[in-house]
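Backbone-to-sequence.
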């Protein structure tokens, strides 16, 4: 019975009169009632998140290098397969010969001789097309080729593809050539 005589509270934003006769709301933008965060607390949380994310990014560096190296090796295997298919096709480079290659980075952009990529376009290096894959020059009768790239994750290690297959070679202060990286005496 007592509950009928008590005043019920109204829900919502109903104004109340203060003791001084001013209108007050049950909330205030300038008073802290325990809800929300201060600017300092937010800055500390943002700093901790930034620190943790930088640690994660640094730890992912070696994994990215290994992934790029894996792609390099797969690309060179693919280039080797394309060159072997071209060797066996008289419409590609002629009868039993490889396409002509010149020494330098990205000298061969497609495996074909007439401008239409019959077998494949040579992919860019995972670090970018400006880095590229290095080619050595072959000579008539074009019975060999050699393309190579340096690996990032393994120190002083090169991966080479030639008519002798695909291989890795590790040697300090080394630059690949037709006779050593791409197989022993690739001209025979």
């Amino acid at each position: 019975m007592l509950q009928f005589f008590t005043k019920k509270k109204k829900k919502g934003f109903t104004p109340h009169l203060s003791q001084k006769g001013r209108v007050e709301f049950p909330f205030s933008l300038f008073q802290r009632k325990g809800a929300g965060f201060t600017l300092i607390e937010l800055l500390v949380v943002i700093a901790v998140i930034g620190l943790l994310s930088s640690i994660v990014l640094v730890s992912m560096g070696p994994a990215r290098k290994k992934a790029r190296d894996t792609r390099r090796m797969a690309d060179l295997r693919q280039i080797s397969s394309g060159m072997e298919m071209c060797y066996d096709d008289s419409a590609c480079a002629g009868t039993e010969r490889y396409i002509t290659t010149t020494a330098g980075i990205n000298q061969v952009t497609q495996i074909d001789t007439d401008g239409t990529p019959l077998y494949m376009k040579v992919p860019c290096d995972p670090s970018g097309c400006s880095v590229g894959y290095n080619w050595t020059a072959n000579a008539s009768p074009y019975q060999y080729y050699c393309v190579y790239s340096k690996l990032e994750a393994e120190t002083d290690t090169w991966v080479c593809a030639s008519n002798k297959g695909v291989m890795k070679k590790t040697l300090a202060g080394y630059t690949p050539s037709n006779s050593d990286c791409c197989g022993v005496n690739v001209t025979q």
